[in-house]
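QA checklist item 7 of 12: single-chain prediction sanity check.
[x] sequence parsed
[x] length recorded as 247
[x] structure emitted
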Amino acid sequence: MLPLSVSNPEANLRDVHPLVLVVDDEPRIIRFVRINLEMEGFRVIEAANGLEAVDQVREKMPDAVLLDVSMPEMDGFETLRMIREISSVPVIMLTVRSTEEDKVRGLDLGADDYITKPFSPRELVSRLRAVLRRVQPVSSAGDSVLEIDNRVSLDFNTGEVLVEGKRIKLRPIEFRLLRHLIENAGWTVPYSTLLSKVWGYEYKDAVSYLRLYINYLRKKIEPDPANPRYIFTERGMGYRFVDFRRQ
C-alpha cells in the first residue's frame, strides 16, 4: 500500500506549500510579492486584472488571494464581488487607501483582511499565515450538531448552519466567531479575546472588525437583528451568547 503522503500529491503539496493568487496590474509589485512568498514556502500564481483573477480562482482554486484595489477597468472591489459569487477563498485586499470607509466596504463584500501599501514582507507573510490559520476546518470534541432554541442548528464538522430549517451561508470567519460565542454561552467574552481567537493576536484592538461581523451574524441568525435574542452586547466589555443550556 502506498503511504498517505504520496497518495494525493496535490493535496499534500497544498498542506505544506499553500497556493496564493497575486492580483495586481503592476508587474513590480507582483515580482516583489512572488519573491518574498516563495522564500517562505508559498506557491504563487498571478493575474494582471480582475477578469484574469476570477478565471484563476475558478480554474486553480488557490488557498488565498492577494487582491489589489486600484486596478484599471475593473477595480478590486468589483473583482472581489465576482470572486465571492464562486468561492469563499480567503482574500486580502492590498491598497494605498487606508480610510475606514474603504476597509468597511471591502469587509462588507467579503474580504478577510486589508494591508495598506507600502507593506513589509514580514507583515505580508504574517497576515497571510494568520488568514490561512483562521479558515482551517474546526472540529468538535463533543456532539457534532448543536440545536439552539429549536430554531438554529449548528454542525461543527461541516460548518453548516440551519435557521428554521433553511441553510444559511456563513463565511469561515463568521462561523469561527459564532462557534466561539456559543462555546462560551452565558459568559461575556471580551472584545480582545474574540479578536485574538478569531482573527489573531495582531487584531486584538480592531474592534470595528468585530462589530461588523457581529452585525453580519445577527442579520443571518436573529429573528429581529435590532432586538437580539442570541447575541447580546455588553457595552464597553464584549459580547455574550444567550445561555441556551439553561432554557
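[x] summary fact logged: The longest strand covers residues 19-23.
[ ] second reviewer sign-off
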